[in-house]
Every structure is written in structure tokens, then in C-alpha cells.
Amino acid sequence: MSQNFPLPPLAQIPPHLQTIADYEQQARKHLPDMVWQYLQGGSMDEISVRSNLAQFAHIQLLPRMLKDLTHGSTECEIFGQKFPHPIFLAPIGHQQQFHPEAEAASALAAEVLGSNMILSTFSNTDMRALKRENPYKWFQLYWQGGREKSLALVKLAEQQNFKAIVITVDSPHTGIRDRERRVFFQLPAGMQHPHTPAHIPLPELKAGDHPVFNGLMKIAPTWDDIAWIAQQTSLPVILKGVLHPLDARLAIQHGVRGLIVSNHGGRVLDTGIPPLTALQLIRKAVPADFPLLYDGGVRRGSDVFKAIALGASAVLIGRPYIYGLACAGALGVAHVVKILKEEFEITMALMGTAALNDITEEYIFQK
Q1: Among 85, 193, 195, 264, the one annotated catalytic
Q2: Does the predicted model carry a pTM greater than 0.90?
Q3: CA 353 to CA 68: how far, in whole Å?
Q4: For position 171, which CATH number holds?
């Protein structure tokens, strides 16, 4: 597998990389245009991609003063596991496109920074190659077209000390990505995916069969499959991509232990409800202690604060850490997490909140 990068990764972090926006500009210099368009693009008119970023600007902060914050901490607890901070790495596949060390570099940075990493099924790095002792890792499952193949990956994740299973449910069919088609995007020939084929084999279509509904949708998971997986593993099962409050309730009924509220970075269904809005609706529909993680458009520590205030237990970042990976490998990913973590800590201090449990809607003003 060969990949021609316009600029090699940086050996050290230059002083001008201070924000996620700085990293975004720098990352473009390190990636082929086709890969850059893949990373930045979304589905159809990319309205959801832009909305994910814009939604935070419409939510204002309402700080409190003169509180004793000397006992402050960013620690959070989910499924009985404690994390030093609530900034997690979202599952992103095919990371060898962005840096030769791929997910191994992201995992190293995540471990050093105490950031929980969610490894994609479409990883170029075998999950057995990641440090088994690192407790901050979950495995993301793309349904493999059937129960047994899907369960085999779950069992392998159990053996490798992954702490939860995240099942992505919002992309039973690939989104219509105009930008990718315009640049004729394709994965490099020979790219290895140790846990799944890059394209899961489709059922054989008979005369008169519909290519969508008798194709990919025929092998897509259903609620019964989710319930079955939840019964087969001792690990918490989390669904990623739920936006509707009624689906949140169904998830609980089918043994799901948490949700990642996400619209897949705007890459699947365009003009769907913004995930920050969905978060607020779902928070009202589930028990107060039910874990909801947030994914979509986080670029600042203040965005992390807003998501937690509106009901998130933790947040996921996707494109931002890939910018870091493209720029400087593990060092870049670590720096991106460090930037967001420090911005979040300072936002907490300026808002008068000493712990994540203090961060509530009381600190939010919505026009």
C-alpha cells in the first residue's frame, strides 16, 4: 500500500499550531487532495456538516462568579469506569490514509493523554496490536451482515480488554457523498483491514430485486439483533447514531447501556436534526443517569462545556484528531487533545464549575 503525501509529518510541533483551526489548515498541506476531500466532506449539500459546527455559536454561556474551585476536576465516570477527562476519540476508519502509523499512533496519543479511544471496525491496525493493558479503549462494531461474524469481533474485543462495544446504527447504507464522487475517491489498493473486508459482501440479487432494499438493507441489523448482541456479551453495548427520542427508549428496552448522539459528522443523511438538538430531546426521554455521549462539531473547549451542560456524559472528537494525526502522527493527536482539554479546563474555571456534575443547563442561555 503506497500513499504519496504532499508534505511529510512534522517531527515537532511548530509554535503556530495553537488551535484546532490551526491544525485544520496545516493538515491540508500534508494530505493528497482526494484524501482531504474525503475527510472534510459530507453527504449531499453538506448542510449537516456546516450545521454541526454552527450550532455551538447559537448557544451562549451564563457564568457564575466567586465560587471556590480549588477542588476542581475534569474526571468523569461511565459504566463504573473513571476517565480523567470527557474528551474521547471517535471511531474513524482507514487511518493509514492520514499517517503511516494509522490507528497505532492515535491509540498511543490517547493513552498518554488519558483519552478514551473508540477503535473502528475499519481499522488498518489490528486490535491485538494495541496495548492490552490500556483501560481507555472501546471497540466500534459495524454490523458484519450476520450475527456470527459480528459476535466474533465482539468476542475478540473482549479478549483484548476493550471495555465497551459501540455499534454504529446510522449508516446501514453509505451516504450520497457528492464531493467524494467528484474527486473519484477510492481507498489505496492493498490497504489492509484486519477485522473486516473494506466492502461487506452483498446478498446476491435476483431478477426484480431492489438494489437498495434487497441489497444492503437486507443484511442491516434490526432491534432484535441489537438485543441478541447485548445478551451475548458482558460488555456494555452502546449505540452510535441515534437521534430520535423514541429510538433512545427502544434502545433501553433492548438492553443498550448508553448512546452516542451523532449524525455521523454529516456524512450519511444530510439535513437531519443537529445532534446538539437531538441531545436535548433524548436527555428528556431517558433516565437521568443513562449515559449519553455527544459527537459532532466539537472544535473548542467551550463546545465540550456546552455539550455537557445540555446532557452529555462525554464528547467525541473526530476530524480534529485526524488533523493532528496528519500533521504529526501521535504527537499531533496528543497536542490536539491537550488543546481541547486545557480550553475545557479554563472554560470550567471561568464558568464557576468545579466538576462535570456542576455543569448544567443553568449555565446555558439559548436565544
Answers
A1: 264
A2: yes
A3: 9
A4: 3.20.20.70
